[in-house]
Amino acid sequence: MNERMKITADAAAMLFLRQGYSKTQISHIAKAVGVSVGTIYLDFSGKKEILNFILASIIDPDFVNHEFERPITNDLFIGIETKIVTLFEDIGTEFSRHLENNAIGYTFGELISDSFDLLAQYAVGCLFIEKNYFDFKYLSDHYREYRKKFFAAMRQYLSIFMDRGDVRQLEDLDLNVMYITETLSWWAMDMRYTSFEISEISLESAKKICIDNITAAYKKQN
After folding, report:
1. Which keywords has UniProt assigned to this entry (predicted)?
2. Rounded Cα gap, residues 44 and 52, in angstroms
3. CA-CA distance, 145 to 54, in Å (whole number)?
């Protein structure tokens, strides 16, 4: 049963990302899964419960393996938006932790690798909020603040690496931070879910491409 719920959640996530939450109906999800609408309602009380199931699985990857009383209702997800906001804060703190000691012992290549892993791990949640801003304004506003903090931390890292000669000098630091962040975001997130043609490139290959090309582009010139 849990496998069917996971398949339903995965199909719904793709629809929420590609056509929007408000435009997605239970019938669309059922068609994508290949089951009847009634089968969906055996597991979930409605579309919002499916969404919250997806978000809960992002917070806790083992969530899908729990035992549930079906159909799942929103009673199971009380406080989930607060948990998502707390997750944003925790992610931001973890991403910035090397700044506490001026990134000593931390390399530009490791920053790119860690950034890729972070974006890939939370791709569905991040993209969902980005694509459905007006439907979920509370989450979107907090996500926007998280994005600002992520950008600021990336900028500080890049500044440190420039100062100590790990990367070449850059004329416009903000634009370069934007370029790096958007490049990582596309390869770690959009490529799998929202690009015009969904790519079959593995995450491992995508990560290697990002690390190889970004580090080469920013390598200090001799």
Report:
1. DNA-binding
2. 10
3. 22
Region for residue 86 given its phi and psi (left: phi exceeds 0; alpha: psi -120 to 50; beta: otherwise): alpha
Q: How does the average pLDDT of the chain come out, rounded? A: 94
CATH number for the domain that contains residue 87: 1.10.357
pLDDT of 47 reads 96
Residues spanned by the domain of 48: 2-77
Write the single-letter amino acid at 190. Answer: D
Do 111 and 200 reside in the same domain of the chain?
A: yes
d(CA 27, CA 35): 9
Is-contact 120 189, C-beta < 8 A?
yes
What are 23-39's pLDDT values in tens digits? 999 999 999 999 999 99
Whether 31 and 112 map to the same domain: the answer is: no
The reply to whether 73 and 133 lie within a common domain is no
pLDDT at 51 over 90: yes
